[in-house]
Amino acid sequence: MDALKLIALDEEDLKIVSAHAQDAVMKVADLEFLAHRKRFVVAMNRFAWEESGGLFSHHNERRRCILHFDRVLAVRTSGIARDKPDEVLSLLAVRFDPAEAPAGVVELVFSGGGAIRLDVECIEARLTDIGGAWEASSRPAHKT
Questions:
Q1: What is the pTM of this model?
Q2: DSSP state letters, 75-94
Q3: Residue 117: enclosing H or E segment and its boundaries?
C-alpha cells in the first residue's frame, strides 16, 4: 500500500486521523512543541489498521509516521513523565473539545491515563507515513 497522508481541518477529519493513529507507540522523547512555529510534533510507530485484513487476519504491520498539529498556542500534559524520555506511550485516541469557534483543545489520550492537551486556534493536523512498513509481532488488543 502507498504511504498514508491525511490532513484534518475539522472535527470529522480529526476522527479519521484518530482511527489511523490508534495504538501508535512512541517514546516521551518523540514529543516536541515548537512554540515559535506554533507546531506540536509526534514521531511514532502506528499500527496499520488499514492493512490488517480483518479481525482474524495474521498480517500485522507498523509504519513510522509523523503526526503534527499547527496553530498550537499552548501544550499541557498530565500523567506523562517528561523526565523519562525513554518511556513508551501508546496512543488511544485524538479528540477535540471546541471552544469559541474555530478554537478549542485537541486532546491526545494515552493508555495508562496520560494525556496531552493542545490549545489550538483551529484544527490543522497532518498524519504522514515517512518510512516503510515492518511486521508487527502482535495486534493491539483492548479490554472491553
A1: 0.87
A2: EEEES--TT-TT-EEEEEEE
A3: strand 115-120
**CB-based contacts of 41: which residues, under 8 Å, 6+ apart?**
31, 32, 33, 34, 66, 67, 68
Q: Are 89 and 28 in contact (CB under 8 A)?
A: yes
Q: How many CB atoms lie within 10 A of CB 14?
A: 21
Q: Which tens digit of pLDDT belongs to each residue from 21-80?
A: 999 999 999 999 999 999 999 999 998 767 655 555 566 788 899 999 999 999 999 999
Give the list of residues 6+ apart from residue 84 with CB closer than 8 angstroms, or none.
28
| 111 three-class SS | helix
Q: Reply yes or no: is the peptide bond before residue 102 cis, omega within 30 of 0.
A: yes
- N-term to C-term CA, the chain: 31
CA distance 98 to 51: 32
